[in-house]
Automatic annotation (TrEMBL):
GO MF, one example: ATP hydrolysis activity
Organism: Amnibacterium kyonggiense
Alphabetical UniProt keywords: ATP-binding, Coiled coil, Nucleotide-binding
Chain coiled-coil ranges: 520-579
Protein name: ATPase subunit of ABC transporter with duplicated ATPase domains
One family name in Pfam for this protein: ABC_tran
Entry-linked InterPro entries: AAA+_ATPase, ABC_tran_Xtn, ABC_transporter-like_ATP-bd, ABC_transporter-like_CS, ABCF_ATPase, P-loop_NTPase
SUPFAM superfamilies: P-loop containing nucleoside triphosphate hydrolases
Limits of the ABC transporter domain: 5-239, 286-505
Family annotation (PANTHER family): ABC TRANSPORTER ATP-BINDING SUBUNIT (PTHR42855), ABC TRANSPORTER DOMAIN-CONTAINING PROTEIN (PTHR42855:SF1)
């Protein structure tokens, strides 16, 4: 591998905070790196520094002589002219038409866009696709892509992943991409960078491997924190037993205890919307009966039959312009059918998370806390009554954001607040129209956790394959003006788009192609047994920690015996965890 780009001891700060500090990292030939992190942590800033478009306050960026770097950032840099001219420049038709890469990019990214269209006539999403196409037709050694899947449909994301995987020979070129599309990250990347707390942590593998490694890192951090807390309890127990007249030694011990507490990190943001009230759904939800829809006399949907059931969790797939938003408008009642009818149940309360942040339009000058405070004075989460500020913090809003005016929030924070307002309105039919826009991967995971426990009917329109497969139980496709059920899910949809025949496996084949019924039962029993053994070890270890805190601190032999038992049980638990993971993987893969 050869060095391409390097950053040495980079520091960058704004008037209010430090974004990156003492950061060193590099790119080598063959690197395929995905960048994740919370909104505002510095992902786009990092790409700008590597690209040379953003100067750090200190440190330096080095680039090997002759290296060609291509950049897709968040800015719209297209000039005037036609779509085709912006992509191929001044090249003659016979020249660019004979270039296989140009033909593939035009076909893969500009479906439904006339190459002779003037750029000024394009939507924001179409302009973004043109900018990406112009970049990919160039010859670059390094590609730095900031959210390249924005405004791409599922087919476009699949094409982009295939293009990037085939763009360079093995061990050649380098790619760094910021993306919230987790399927795309897994399909393209072999390493991950997580930007957080002014630094970057590196992980081997794609997004799935990153999640596993971060989970293990957090587990180890929790174990260390538990040991730290146990030591703190021992220290405090010693202090409680100390005689008040003793001065020097208690003072030393108090200082030691304070040192243990000083560097305890704040907990990560968490989401806790479990138990939010929602109106009860009756037997009838929404029925589309032979429903058609048209705009300006042009048919969009024809003869749609869809009877939405209570608790149904459905994903809607389709190309841009296929009629997905029209279908949602029929469901939520904002559009009347041109023929047929739409029937809503008497108890149905539909709310729709739009792409336009409509819920925040009239409160741009208000503070976050004020907006929430107008709705209710308190919210019940489980058995706990929370004030608006407390609920916001549990949703990931740090305290300093509560007094921020809505207009000053970033797109990601606005999206979080919009989702919160929709959920707090207590709908029983929730429609999410491209909910992943402006959200980082941590917030997407948090949102999915909320949706897992949401008790109503859920309809999701998204080009994020990971989200669709994660939160919905069935999928439909909007194509050719019709609504088609997809028993085979996203794979069936992509095969239909490719014109291939689809074989939908039976439920039994999906459930256990590699294990007999007896083998599956044995694995399930093994997992249950391992669970019980780990729970017993956890309880015994907790009891040992309590004994350690209350034991006579002058009895070194007794203290060492207790500590030895704790170490043995922790080692045994780690071994059991490995067995559990192996058994679970066998069961999952089967």
């Amino acid at each position: 591998m050869a060095h391409l780009v390097g950053a040495e001891r980079i520091r960058l700060e704004t008037p209010t905070r430090v974004i990156l500090d003492d950061l060193s990292l590099g790119l080598e030939t063959g690197d395929r790196i995905g960048v994740v992190g919370r909104n505002g942590e510095g992902k786009s800033t990092l790409l700008g520094i590597l690209a040379g478009t953003r100067e750090p306050d200190s440190g330096r960026v080095t680039t090997r002589n002759g290296v060609r770097i291509g950049v897709l950032d968040q800015e719209d840099r297209l000039g005037a002219g036609t779509v085709l001219a912006s992509i191929v420049g001044g090249r003659e038709e016979h020249e660019w038409a004979g270039d296989r890469r140009v033909r593939e990019v035009l076909s893969g990214l500009l479906h439904g866009v006339d190459p002779e269209t003037d750029l000024d006539a394009l939507s924001g999403g179409q302009r973004r696709r043109v900018a990406l196409a112009a970049l990919l037709t160039g010859d670059h050694d390094v590609l730095l892509l900031d959210e390249p899947t924005n405004h791409l449909d599922i087919e476009g994301v699949r094409w982009l992943a295939a293009h990037l995987n085939a763009r360079w020979a093995a061990g050649q070129g380098a790619l760094v991409t910021v993306s919230h599309d987790r399927w795309f990250l897994d399909a393209v990347c072999t390493r991950m960078w997580e930007v957080h707390d002014r630094t970057v942590d590196a992980f081997e593998g794609g997004y799935a491997a990153y999640v596993l490694q971060r989970l293990e890192r957090d587990r180890q951090a929790r174990a260390m924190e538990e040991r730290r807390q146990n030591l703190m309890r021992k220290e405090l127990a010693w202090l409680r037993r100390g005689a008040p007249a003793r001065t020097a030694k208690p003072k030393f011990r108090i200082e030691a205890a304070n040192e243990l507490i000083a560097d305890v990190p704040p907990p990560r943001d968490s989401v806790a919307l479990h138990g939010m009230a929602s109106a009860r759904l009756g037997k009838d939800v929404v029925d589309l009966i032979d429903a058609s829809a048209a705009y300006d006399g042009t048919p969009i949907l024809e003869h749609v039959e869809w009877r939405i059931a209570p608790g149904e969790r459905t994903g809607i797939l389709g190309r841009n312009g296929a009629g997905k938003s029209t279908l949602l408008a029929l469901v939520d009642g904002t559009l009347a059918p041109s023929s047929g009818r739409v029937k809503h149940g008497k108890t149905v309360r539909v709310r729709r998370l739009t792409q336009q942040l409509d819920e925040l339009e009239d409160v741009q000058g208000d503070r976050v806390l004020d907006v929430i405070g107008r709705l209710k004075t308190g919210y019940r989460v489980g058995d706990t009554e929370l004030a608006p500020g407390q609920l916001l913090e549990r949703l990931g809003f740090p305290s300093q954001q509560l007094s921020t005016r809505i207009a000053e929030l970033s797109g990601g924070w606005k999206r979080r607040l919009q989702l919160l307002l929709v959920l707090l309105d207590a709908p029983n039919v929730l429609i999410l129209d491209e909910p992943t826009n402006d959200l980082d991967t941590d917030m997407l995971t948090a949102m999915e956790d909320v949706l897992d426990t949401w008790p109503g009917t859920l309809i999701v329109v998204s080009h994020d394959r990971y989200l669709i497969e994660r939160v919905t139980d069935q999928q439909y496709a909007v194509a050719g003006g019709r609504l088609r059920h997809l028993p085979g899910g996203v794979d069936e949809y992509l095969a239909l788009e490719d014109g291939a025949s689809v074989v939908v496996p039976s439920a039994e084949a999906v459930r256990s192609p590699g294990l007999s019924g007896a083998e599956r039962r044995d694995l399930e029993k093994q997992l249950a047994s391992l669970d019980r053994r780990m729970q017993r070890l956890t309880a015994e270890t907790r009891a040992d920690h309590d004994a350690l805190a209350t034991h006579d601190q002058s009895d070194y032999v007794g203290l060492e015996a207790i500590a030895g038992r704790i170490r043995e049980r922790e080692e045994e638990r780690e071994s059991l965890e490995l067995e559990w993971i192996e058994a679970a993987e066998r069961l999952e893969s089967a």
